[in-house]
Write a structure and sequence with these properties.
mainly alpha, 14 helices, globular
Length: 306
């Protein structure tokens, strides 16, 4: 049975989707923990990068609500949580204004981040271009005339922005140096982030198929999507093993404490027969990813130095 949105405040909370914010912060924390380990950590970078990422994630969530309504994915037969615009309490115009607001906030905080981190104008321009690309990706996932999420390309975007670019970019803004070893953590978080999106798309496979949204589960079918989900979960934890091997910092494996929880999430998704059973695993996977990063950081920064 669908959850009913009663008030406008509830509608906005649904649109913001607070449960997705832990996932948004995971790559920022991952890059910052790595910076702390290598002795180049800066608090102002962590705070501004976190703020920028939260604004971008909220922008993405609002755009998703707006775009799915426009393109028909949030129709009456949809079995997932009710969307804010679909509820009728928030108009398309109001949602569009909120999108503009968080787009501007993300741009302002991103510019402050670059001003604090980068003194070279060439680097400033490069990171500004990446930031604008992130804003575009947040909006264009389901909005616009040719949303890439409807072509099944969301997993690639999530892997890049929540994984490789999130971790590498954050680490580089701390250090202004390159480090090959951190690629394993970037890949790991990219895979976990793709798993969260994949669980979302498995939940919505029927309604997405009706709306013509060709997500990976729609393209390959639910059974293959579940196998894909296991590959993402197992692959991310394998990358942690590779990082520990490459750096010889085995205390970073403290993050594997979360592995049984991720396995439990994978099993729940595999056994779920409808969207109501699958939906809670979105939040569990997102929170598990953040917990994985925090334990990784504790093991790497504190236990490795003791």
């Amino acid at each position: 049975m669908k959850q009913t949105i009663v008030t406008k405040k509830e509608a906005w909370l649904h649109a913001v989707r607070l449960r997705t914010l832990p996932l948004a912060l995971a790559s920022i924390f991952g890059g910052s923990f790595l910076a702390a380990y290598y002795g180049v950590f800066r608090w102002e970078i962590l705070l501004l990068a976190s703020l920028t990422t939260i604004f971008l994630q909220i922008l993405s969530n609002l755009s998703n609500d707006y775009g799915d309504t426009i393109h028909g994915a949030d129709h009456q037969e949809r079995q997932g949580p009710v969307r804010a615009v679909q509820s009728g309490l928030i108009s398309l115009t109001e949602m569009k204004r909120a999108m503009y607001l968080f787009g501007v906030l993300a741009l302002i905080s991103g510019l402050l981040l670059l001003y604090v981190a980068v003194q070279d104008w060439v680097l400033f321009g490069m990171f500004l271009a990446l930031g604008m690309a992130a804003i575009w990706a947040s909006i264009s996932y389901t909005s616009g005339s040719n949303p890439y999420g409807y072509a099944g390309l969301g997993d690639i975007s999530v892997f890049l922005f929540f994984g490789l670019l999130g971790v590498f970019g954050t680490y580089y803004l701390h250090s202004l140096t390159w480090n090959d070893a951190i690629i394993w953590i970037g890949i790991a978080l990219g895979l976990f982030s793709a798993a969260v999106l994949n669980i979302n798309n498995i939940r919505d496979i029927e309604s997405d198929s009706i709306a013509g949204k060709k997500s990976i589960p729609v393209r390959i079918g639910k059974n293959a999507a579940i196998i894909y989900n296991w590959c993402l979960i197992l692959g991310g934890n394998y990358c942690l093993l590779m990082f520990a091997y490459v750096t010889n910092e085995w205390t970073s494996l403290l993050a594997l404490v979360i592995f049984p929880i991720m396995v439990k999430v994978g099993l729940a998704v595999q056994k779920g027969t409808d969207s109501k059973e699958i939906d809670p695993n979105l939040k569990k996977m997102a929170v598990s990813t953040l917990a994985w990063v925090i334990l990784f950081g504790i093991g790497l920064v504190f236990l490795a130095k003791s």
